[in-house]
Specification:
Distance between the termini: 35 Å
Largest sheet: 5 strands, antiparallel
Number of helices: 0
Helix content: under 10%
Number of strands: 7
Amino acid sequence: MCKQDGSQFSWSLKEPQAELLDESGKVIGRHFAGPSWQLNDRSQVSGKVIARIDSPNADAVPWLLLGAGIIPEPD
């Protein structure tokens, strides 16, 4: 997301969005806000932030230690 502060503009992470690929490069799922991961079979896992520290690289997202739980598939 682009933010404006006076005459300055900067980019910030709104939420992660990524495709999950298998060894052959086929899309098998996606990663999105939560943090959550969902496979094409609709199975899903969401993480809970246990700990967070800033990355040594000031331009990178924070490092997170996550716990995870399985979310039941909707009926």
